[in-house]
């Protein structure tokens, strides 16, 4: 493909991403994958270049742009080489007309920038949310150690502050390696690993992963348990939860799964009421801490959506609390940096439930935020997380 044709291809993908964000449709990753799948003639070098153009344009636009062309013009306004590719050539974009509007810049929609600022994130912290994320691995303790894994990998890896974590450059195709097929590691951000570690599970305990999804954190809990005890992974999403057994088999992890009905979680977990030693709540959230990986996600949010997430999170905290035995604990996690989904929600729970107290140890990265702990890309080099460990009296 010519450079101009790559630009037009990126514009086409951007148009689809913008439309999907407006209707809460498919993710940008899925849209790009489907676009390339339908055009198998596009080579790997062209795919990388097109994707980079599209993602750079997504990161450059604070508000959702009017069109893919407007988003690309935002980049072209500061890149004369890119602007010259709007030349009207075959398969390329039409020439830029005098006064043609480009999309507005910024970190996020204005209301969201203000909400992040009110949650303690200044302009520098907000800007880092749109950087490039590295690829972190979690060495699977059930099969290896971090040192043994590092010695086996085909590329050099950096140790991070999480005890089982190795860091590789962004875009590393680690899941194609034989070590992945052998279950020696999982792809998991260092921040996510630290959030799991905050629950401090011990072999022999009864543990519930209340919002397990496809089981990334479940597998980390299984490794910490050394497969000794009882680990129950729950979710309301059948397709996601159905992926866990295969992943667990590869990792050599033992975990029971249980599909729950929305709003009936407590009834469907009645056999665990007051019995669990520990419960992990990786609650549904806005994902403001994961924009490095999903930058278009900020175009999908609204104040009403944040309020709905906060209500769901409060309900799940109450459900989890009733599962924990006296003296037991829970860790509440969101990959959001908004206080409405983090510190504020935990404070409201503690005010409501006098039989609970905060019990979070100091972590090797991050900073205290209310009755919890916060990790950010700018300060810690991880995805953005808030988590809080609470103990039942």
Q: State the name of the first-level CATH class of the largest domain.
A: Alpha Beta
**What are the low-pLDDT stretches, counting only 5+ consecutive residues below 50?**
none
Order of helices and strands: HHHHHHHEHEEHEHEHEHHEHEHEHEEEHE
Number of domains: 3
Question: Short description, anyone?
Answer:
Helices cover 39% and strands 16% of the residues.
Description:
- 39% of the residues lie in helices and 16% in strands.
- The chain starts with a helix and ends with a strand.
- The protein is of the alpha/beta class.
- It has helices at 3-22, 28-37, 44-60, 68-76, 80-84, 110-118, 123-128, 146-152, 178-181, 190-197, 216-225, 238-241, 244-251, 265-268, 303-321, 343-352, 377-380; strands at 135-139, 158-159, 165-168, 185-187, 206-209, 230-235, 256-259, 276-282, 324-334, 356-358, 367-369, 372-375, 385-392.
- The strands form two sheets. Strands 5, 6, 7, 8, 9, 10, 11, 12 and 13 form a nine-stranded mixed β-sheet that branches.
- The longest helix has 20 residues, at 3-22.
- The model has no long low-confidence stretch (mean pLDDT 97).
- The chain folds into three domains: 3-106; 143-187, no CATH class; 190-392, Rossmann fold (3-Layer(aba) Sandwich).
- Strand 2 and strand 3 (165-168) form a beta hairpin.
- It is globular and about 70 Å long.
- Helix 1 (3-22) packs across helix 3.
């Amino acid at each position: 493909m010519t450079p101009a044709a790559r630009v037009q291809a990126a514009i086409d993908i951007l148009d689809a991403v913008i439309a999907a964000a407006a209707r809460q449709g498919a993710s940008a990753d899925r849209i790009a994958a489907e676009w390339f799948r339908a055009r198998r003639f596009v080579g790997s070098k062209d795919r990388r270049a097109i994707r980079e153009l599209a993602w750079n344009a997504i990161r450059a636009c604070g508000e959702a742009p009017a069109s893919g062309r407007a988003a690309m013009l935002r980049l072209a306004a500061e890149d004369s080489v890119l602007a010259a590719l709007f030349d009207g050539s075959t398969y390329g974009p039409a020439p830029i007309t005098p006064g043609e509007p480009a999309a507005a810049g910024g970190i996020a929609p204005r209301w969201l920038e203000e909400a992040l600022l009110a949650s303690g994130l200044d302009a520098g912290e907000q800007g880092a949310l749109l950087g490039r994320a590295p690829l972190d691995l979690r060495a699977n303790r059930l099969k290896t150690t971090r040192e043994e894994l590092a010695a086996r990998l085909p590329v050099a890896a950096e140790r991070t502050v999480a005890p089982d974590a190795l860091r590789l450059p962004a875009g590393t195709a680690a899941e194609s390696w034989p070590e992945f097929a052998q279950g020696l590691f999982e792809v998991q951000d260092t921040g996510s690993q630290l959030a799991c570690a905050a629950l401090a599970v011990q072999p022999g305990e009864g543990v519930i992963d209340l919002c397990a999804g496809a089981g990334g954190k479940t597998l980390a809990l299984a490794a910490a348990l050394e497969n000794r005890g009882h680990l129950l992974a729950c979710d309301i999403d059948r397709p996601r939860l159905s992926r866990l057994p295969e992943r667990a088999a590869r990792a050599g992890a033992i975990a029971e799964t249980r599909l729950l009905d929305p709003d009936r979680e407590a009834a469907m977990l009645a056999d665990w009421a007051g019995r669990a030693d520990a419960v992990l709540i990786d609650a549904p959230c806005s994902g403001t801490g994961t924009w490095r990986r999903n930058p278009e996600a900020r175009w999908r949010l609204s104040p009403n959506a944040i309020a709905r997430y906060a209500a769901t999170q409060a309900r799940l905290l109450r459900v989890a609390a009733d599962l924990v035995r006296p003296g037991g604990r829970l860790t509440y996690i969101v990959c959001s940096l908004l206080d409405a989904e983090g510190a504020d929600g935990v404070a409201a729970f503690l005010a409501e439930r006098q039989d609970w107290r905060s019990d979070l140890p100091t972590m090797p990265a991050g900073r205290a935020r209310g009755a919890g702990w916060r990790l950010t890309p700018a300060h810690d080099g991880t995805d953005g997380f808030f988590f809080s460990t609470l103990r039942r009296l």
